Amino acid sequence: WKAVMASLFNARALGSEASDLLCSLPQMDVDEEHVKQFSRSTSSYKNNSKRFVVTKKDYLKQYFEIYFHRLQRMRPFVQARAEQKWAADDTAKGKGKGASTSDSQDNEEAVLVPKILQVKPGQECFLTGTLYKEMPLKPNILREYSKERSITAVPPKASYVSDLDSLVLEDETGRVRLVGTFTAKHLLTGIVVSVKGKEQPGGEFEVHDWCVPELPPQPEIVEKSTKGTDPSYLALVSGMELGDEKANPVPLQLFIDWISGHLGSPADQELASRVSRLVIAGNSVCPSHTAKEESGVLKYLNKTQIADEQERISRSIHELDLALAQLCKTLPVDLMPGENDPSSFSQPQQPLNPCLFPLASQYQSFHPVSNPYEFQLAGRIFLGTSGQNIDNAARYVDRTSKIDVMEDTLRWRHIAPTAPDTLPCYPFQDDDPFILDQCPHVYFIGNQDKFEVKTINGNEGQQVNLVTIPSFKTTQTILLVNLTTLEISSMMFKGEYDDAE
């Protein structure tokens, strides 16, 4: 069975060259008069990810520029939100604009201070800046260097949060340490906030209240669905990790056969025909396991091992090309790079080179895209990543679920606040592409342990569906997004093969 599935996988990708192989497989008698034919649904599409594509690469620049532009762009949003929030609090208390919400400061009125160095001791005020989170457990390059010299590699921790964490607010003029009753566990380095309070005699700033930018404006849905028409769907999948010789190939082939209309009952085929687009959210090839031994000791590769690793990568990409060629025959496919894929390591990851996929690149329906990836489908805005931004941020905040971290990034109006501090990114000089100018209708991340969905609402009527895409290799699950209602459902493909040989 394993050999038959592998042969069928390769034959369908190669097309006419493998017709003899397909004819040799068992055939089924089909009554053509009773076969119902379905047409593939289509949806309007626009790629909005131009800002994530790096056209001119210069890695000799410093990273202070990206923090500078982040603060310059985010300051008006945060200050407007702060004035709105605290003015509403003052109105509820029957006071004038700008008064403190703290019970101990009810009789004082806060004033806006444009720069940190302009703060006067003892004056109730609010100011805006970029947070820096000091964390004793955070990896340190000098400590890591000393550990590397001892040869033993220390695995990364799931969380670096501790009770000793503290926050510092900084802008172009200076920095000030933040103290008070608020907690630092839910905040990150790199986010822009407004804080209200007083500077203490020791130089610290005692925070009485704080706020973040909140959700950006959300465009109206430009395409309204017609009553009585069947909805179209967007399919989401991630973590296929092709190239693992020990992996079960049956679930992936079942998925390809279903979405291509070659598998299932007429009802299943009709559902498959209404999938107008497929997005593959990273980690399409299996990761390398030769750089480290199971003991965790660093291992330097010799020429033979390097050649074996290159052959493994080539085999993985070839298997991915075969799968993509089958998919692109029937519907548009957007391929995002992930942590395991042969793309740039720094964020944003650039689209995979079409030259890697000689079979799939022959189809106009094949679209290598960036990570992060923003696009408009059927009038709805979709924003997604392969998961690195949330996986990295989750290590530095105290959240029980990654979907809560996703919500935080939207309310912070920045999808990668830890870049470039702990998440590698390109040293942009003119802008910060991770800032959100518009609120998506669906925000997804790939390569997660399980499928989760959460709906959040903004202060101006925004509504966003957050979704985590589980790894297909471990869960055999894909997701379907109803483009009319934006409801998200899962579908699992299971199949076993005899590996006795």
Question: Care to give the gist of this entry?
Answer:
With 501 residues, this protein is an alpha/beta fold. It contains 10 helices and 18 strands. The protein has helices at 2-14, 19-24, 64-92, 141-149, 250-259, 266-273, 303-328, 388-394, 402-411, 472-475; strands at 45-47, 111-112, 125-134, 166-170, 175-180, 192-199, 205-211, 233-237, 275-281, 333-336, 366-368, 373-377, 380-385, 442-448, 452-457, 463-470, 477-482, 488-492.
- Largest beta sheet: what is the strand line-up? 1-12-13-14-16-15
β-strand number: 18
Q: Residue-averaged pLDDT, rounded? A: 84
Q: Determine Rg (CA atoms, Å).
A: 26 Å
Our estimate of the beta-strand percent is: 15-25%
Number of helices: 10
Q: Can you put this structure into words, describing what you see?
A:
- With 501 residues, this protein is an alpha/beta fold.
- The chain is 24% helix and 21% strand.
- The protein has 10 helices and 18 strands.
- The protein has helices at residues 2-14, 19-24, 64-92, 141-149, 250-259, 266-273, 303-328, 388-394, 402-411, 472-475, and strands spanning 45-47, 111-112, 125-134, 166-170, 175-180, 192-199, 205-211, 233-237, 275-281, 333-336, 366-368, 373-377, 380-385, 442-448, 452-457, 463-470, 477-482, 488-492.
- The strands form 3 sheets. The protein has a 6-stranded mixed sheet with strand order 1-12-13-14-16-15. It has a 6-stranded mixed sheet with strand order 11-10-9-8-17-18. A 5-stranded mixed beta barrel has the order 3-4-5-7-6.
- α1 (2-14) crosses α7 (303-328).
- The longest helix is centred in the first third of the chain and has 29 residues, at 64-92.
- The termini are close together.
